Amino acid sequence: MGAFYGWRKLGYSLWQGMFYARSPSAIIDNDKLMKWQLEGKVYREQGGDRHDNTIVSRKPKDQVKVKVLVWVMTSPMNLQTKAKAVKETWGKHCDKVIFFSSETDQDFPTIGLNVSEGRKHLTAKTMQGFRYVYDHFFNDFDWFMKADDDTYVIPENLRYFLSDQNTSKPVFFGHYFKIIVKQGFFSGGGGYVLSKEALRRFGERGKDPKLCRQDGGSEDVEIGICMQNFGVKAGNSTDALGRTRFHCFNPEVHLLGPYPKWYFDYVGKHAKWGTESISDYAISFHYVDPNKMYTLEFYLYHLRLSEQQKLIENKR
Questions:
Q1: In this predicted structure, what is the pLDDT of residue 20?
Q2: Terminus-to-terminus CA distance in the chain, angstroms?
Q3: CB neighbours of 106 closer than 8 A, spacing ≥ 6?
Q4: Which of 33, 111, 116, 175 has the most crowded CB, counting CB atoms within 10 A?
Q5: CB 181 within 8 A of CB 221
Q6: CB-based contacts of 43: which residues, under 8 Å, 6+ apart?
Q7: Rounded-to-integer distance, Cα 44 and Cα 238, Å
Q8: Three-state SS string across the chain, please?
Q9: How far apart are CA 91 and CA 81, in angstroms?
Q10: How does 66-83 read in b/e, with b if 16+ C-beta sit within 10 Å?
Q11: What is the pLDDT of residues 8-45, one digit of tens each?
């Protein structure tokens, strides 16, 4: 019952957030990023409220339209389950979504990469995926996001957040981990998004094994090292109240807890869960199975409150 209530509450908050998103400055120092994003401390601007908020939010007419390509890492065994759910839910709301696998499937469709399946080859799959995107789509889009086939993305909130960022700067965004890489790195499962300048640097220099490991290791760590070697900064994606937009677990964990012990080493010992730590304009969650993808699709794009009843209640 608690999990169901949490999903309903999250769905309502995200539904509101799709219309009123705002972002703070893109790049901040790591100390402030750690304080806001990693330790769960809520920063409240003067005059702020929990909806990130209408006082400081930009009006829709102030938005800069951005085009975002999202590519999804999948496999032949997941094509008719996880990848199918992505395609039929949040993938429909993207500017463009493409699927990379180890095999080409012209009916789905997927783009086959010359990489064997398995976790030990995720780095090669990611490197080749971004290289394909650079070679074929660099001039057509402003931002480029990688996601897994069990990542749930809210493209409207992604575009809203990115509309306030500068794609000409070398920057990328995601769910921040503080360890291993000097400037930190972003969770692969939560998805991360590269600016056009970040992708340009990768496309021009990413084949150099001295700068980017071509296979092996942990995909998200290796991308983090690669970006750092290119001078691409790890950007801050927390909202105006310091709450997170990208998430490495599913909504239940971030709403109801608890986190696994390793997570505190990666993000800080004071990491918190609950609605006060999740932005109403959240962009992604991880470990979302197909059934929950369809559930979130219903909450976000179909469920509505009665406007007439709201007017009646407001007059009381």
A1: 43
A2: 31
A3: none
A4: 175
A5: yes
A6: 35, 36, 238, 240, 241, 242
A7: 12
A8: CHHHHHHHHHHHHHHHHCCCCCCCCCCCCHHHHHHHHHCCCCCCCCCCCCCCCCCCCCCHHHCCCCCEEEEEECCHHHHHHHHHHHHHCHHHHCCEEEEEECCCECCCCEEECCCCCCHHHHHHHHHHHHHHHHHHHCCCCCEEEEEECCCEECHHHHHHHHCCCCCCCCEEEECEECCCCCCCEECCCCCEEEEHHHHHHHHHHCCCCCCCCCCCCCHHHHHHHHHHHCCCEECCCCCCCCCECCCCCCHHHHHHCCCCHHHHHHHCCCCCCCHHHECCCCCEECCCCHHHHHHHHHHHHCCCCCHHHHHHHHCC
A9: 14
A10: bebbbbbbbbeebbeebb
A11: 556 555 555 554 433 333 344 445 544 444 443 333 33
Q: Which two tokens stand for residue 109?
A: 């469709």
Contact 239, 23 (CB under 8 A): yes
Cα three-residue angle 286-191-256, rounded to 5 degrees: 30
How far is C-alpha 95 from the geometric centre of its chain's CA atoms?
15
Q: Which amino acid belongs to residue 16?
A: Q
Which residues, listed in sequence order, are joined to residue 233 by a DSSP beta bridge? 171
Return all residues near 47 (Cβ < 8 A) that are at least 6 apart: 53, 55, 56
Average pLDDT over residues 302-307: 86
| CA distance readout (Å), 262 to 75, 191, 234, 265 | 27, 19, 21, 5
* Pair of tokens at residue 200: 């340009």
In this predicted model, what pLDDT tens digit does every residue of 243-300 receive, in sequence order? Answer: 999 999 999 999 999 999 999 999 988 889 999 899 999 999 999 999 999 999 999 9
